């Protein structure tokens, strides 16, 4: 069903393309920075302790504001929220690029995280409601999935190219012209939607609880690797953040106008889809992080070569999600494609767990990258389609924010847990007398196996809790499915 109270300002497919470009820009920025961190450290004289805050200063507000931004999109209009977020993201990117010191860059990254959250919170909800026909809707969600997963895979390559050929400043400057085009074109092209109106309810107390709880939880998780899981800071802040989130849930159960209607979770499909995505993204972050480290620290690739190593993943994700996945989903159903994709991802991580110290890219990384791209290209559109298909258009903004929140939490928690496993194994091998390369490779092997375990858990949950969706016949491909607008009872 189209956006409520909406008037289409341009071609539906132009709308989808515009939204996907915005999503890819935001996802790219989350991954492009990692490759440039050494150059940032040299350029601004960052200490080793403070360098991690180039990443954390972005992640904390991003993860904390997604739910609120998604609900604001439902209330005041998703177009206005999206364009506001893109504008703030682009302006703060320029501030990041011109930053002359640690404090300026960290503060600018915090603003950038706010802009990224505000922009991305509504994108999936807008994409999923552009079309009412099942087949077109599946194609739109597949395009969004490519923008998300493909953008993550391209990030290391683009970061290496910009850093090596220009400077680290350009990993931020590149967002400015893209953002300007998105805003100028989006004003004319994106559907107008008035939203439900602020009178429908803004739970300010709930918003405060969820923002404080999510930001504190993300901060605790991302900083736990530095201070330790048993540190006083972690043991104190972790429970406090959980108490704030429990208070948020209690507030949503009692207030007349909840920020996050708990009725959404009555849908087994929506709940299971978010859990599966949480585990899948936790594994994906392990691939991007430890795969890059394996290429650079074990195979001794430079940043550009390491980025090139991820190109096959992006190419396969693009080919599958933009071309093949929609046909397979319409023939076999979303659940079947999700389970097949997860099985391929598990196989890819198992292959990576055997990557050799004196390995060769074409033997030790390339086959796994092909399986990984195929798996994510099939699984990502399927899981988003399964989750969003049971959400009413009026709640698509908050559901989109929820999906993005589980992505961020999955990435933050997954990477922290995998890093702990890898670090413990590396330390053990170092103490046993192994060379640096052997110890690092051994640690990465454990991380890849743990990521395979995350994906296996996602496979079991998806098989047990997600209902099979019927294939779409040729007649149905041309008609709107009543399931597309099914409300969550």
Short description:
Helix content is 78%, strand content 1%.
Furnish the topology, listing elements before pairings.
Elements: E1 6-7, H1 12-44, H2 48-51, H3 53-76, H4 78-98, H5 102-120, H6 123-128, H7 134-165, H8 170-173, H9 175-189, E2 192-193, H10 204-227, H11 232-254, H12 268-298, H13 303-308, H14 311-332, H15 334-352, H16 361-364, H17 366-388, H18 396-431, H19 436-465, H20 474-477
Antiparallel strand pairs: 1-2
Describe the biggest sheet?
Answer: 2 strands, antiparallel
Low-confidence stretches: 1-9, 471-489
Helix content: over 70%
Number of helices: 20
Order of helices and strands: EHHHHHHHHHEHHHHHHHHHHH
How far apart, in Å, are the first and last alpha carbons? Answer: 17 Å
Instruction: Give the structural class.
Output: mainly alpha
Strand content: under 5%
> What is the number of strand segments?
2
Mean pLDDT: 78
Q: Measured on Cα atoms, how large is the radius of gyration?
A: 21 Å
Shape: globular
